[in-house]
Amino acid sequence: MARPKNGETDRSNSSDKVEKILQGAMQQFLAYGYASTSMDKVAEAAGVSKATVYSHFQDKEGLFRALIERLARKRFQLILGTQPLKGEPYVVLRRLAKTALNQMINDPEYQAFERLLMGESARFPELAQVFIASIAKPAIETISQYLAARSELNIPDPEATARILIGSLVHFVITQEIMHGKNIMPMESDRLIDALTHLIVNCVK
Amino acid sequence: MARPKNGETDRSNSSDKVEKILQGAMQQFLAYGYASTSMDKVAEAAGVSKATVYSHFQDKEGLFRALIERLARKRFQLILGTQPLKGEPYVVLRRLAKTALNQMINDPEYQAFERLLMGESARFPELAQVFIASIAKPAIETISQYLAARSELNIPDPEATARILIGSLVHFVITQEIMHGKNIMPMESDRLIDALTHLIVNCVK
DNA sequence: GTCTATAGATCGATAGAC
DNA sequence: GTCTATCGATCTATAGAC
How far apart are CA B71 and CA B102, in angstroms? Predict the structure, then answer.
């Protein structure tokens, strides 16, 4: 397995196994949560023995922390990868809201990540804070700066307004998708987007 | 223990124990989550034997469902107990936002409940839906009807706007308290309230 | 480094005495 | 109805062979 390619010496470090372990851990923790995930299942999903897992990570908690920090970094890249906010507010804010909503709604991994972090935020407060610092805070700052730069919007408190924008979008995904409310109180994404842009753009005081 | 009072026959039904079990279960499930709560600890916290727990509830899952449905009913009462929305929009919406925020921020049980439901929403989707149907939906409807009734606000979509209002408030509590973000990205509640009321009230098109 | 095998603790659930 | 005692499964973590 994992034979060296032509002309290469065998570089199959143990890093290969670390990667496989993290993949297996991600699959299990995101699906079953922290407490219900067993190290046996992680090893099985990773295709290695349990002892190998313990040779690369100190214990279950250490593996969990490493995984969450890795996932937070990955999500941070996805945020930064978005094009900078520039242009007419009505167009920019609409596109931003639509893009963010679609990404969150169509990304089961994001939803599982949010579930896991919230569910474990009492027992792993520092991990919830990693999420806040590397994802929520940069997102708010980016939007806040855009809102502040468009002086024609006349927004008294851009940062608070950015929180309203993001909070509305995230909470919509929480109620409709994560907590399975879309059949109980259905609403098209576009209605939320319309109402949001109307509030922010059409309100010059 | 639990002797009949003067003139009463012994009415210490097993209902007394059911109540104690539910109290113990609430303490444990809210603190440790579903998987990490053991039936031994529940019995200990309730002050009864484990066999007694199993004589009143079919299994761990049944006890958990009964508890969540009970907590949802309790929260529903708290919502309905609020005075009906009536009066000038600026005053009403400000007071509503301030009251809701203060209640959520100063209620650790609410925060633990939200954590538990979100964390288990993949494994107990119907319980998350109980929360949506009995808490989120009535709250949105109440606010939506108020917004629709105040025609001078000129709100094109009251229901979507109600979601924006509630979503902003709940998400603020999630980031600041539940996910422990208040030291990382601090913000006074009043700033959010000001920005929200400004957006909704001062925007007549 | 990676494996198999297993120790030791704890889990959910029940049998049987009272 | 409520208890004590216990079963069998499963868990985290490690010892020791290769």
Answer: 20
For the residues A127-148, what does the mean pLDDT come to? 96
CB pairs under 8 A between A and B: 196
CATH 3.40.430.10 fits A68-201, yes or no: no
The class (CATH top level) of B12-57 is mainly alpha
Find all residues with CB under 8 Å of B144, minimum gap 6, and list them: B158, B159, B161, B162
pLDDT in tens, A177-202: 999 999 999 999 999 999 999 999 98
Nucleotides of D under 7 A from a protein CB: 1-6, 10-16
pLDDT for B14 equals 64
Q: Which of A181, A68, A184 is nearest to B121 (CA)?
A: A181
Tell me the domain boundaries of chain B. Answer: 12-57, 67-201
pTM for the full model? Answer: 0.94
Q: Å between A24 CA and D13 C1'?
A: 19
CATH number of A13-57: 1.10.10.60
Q: Which nucleotide is nearest to B39 (CA to C1')?
A: C12
**Phi and psi at residue A175, to the nearest 5°:** -70, -45
Same fold, B12-57 and B67-201: no
Reported as a pLDDT band with limits 50, 70 and 90, residue A84 is confident
